[in-house]
Design a protein that fits this description.
about 80 residues; four-stranded antiparallel sheet; single chain; 1 helix
Length: about 80
């Protein structure tokens, strides 16, 4: 009986507070790019640069000398790779 009471209480609270909850608006997307190849590639850190582009650190098995290599990607403000 206690479990049923808890479930009813939770449902009442959800019903009461749900209309008052506001969800954050999705961010505005400037561009979307995919970097990588056919094998396992994973990004770990992204930092915006002072000129508006981004630097991304990652690991890659698709590029480099074989196995898992460190990958450093530099983009302009449109997401196009530099260097």
């Amino acid at each position: 009986m206690r479990t049923l009471t808890k479930v009813i209480l939770i449902l009442v609270l959800v019903y009461h507070y749900l209309p008052h909850l506001t969800l954050a608006q999705a961010p505005y997307t400037i561009w979307t790019k995919t970097f990588g190849g056919l094998y396992h590639d994973a990004g770990y850190s992204v930092q915006q640069t002072t000129y508006g582009g981004y630097i991304i650190t990652a690991t890659t098995q698709s590029f480099g000398s074989g196995g898992s290599d460190v990958w450093f990607i530099k983009t302009d403000d449109y997401g196009d790779t530099l260097c």
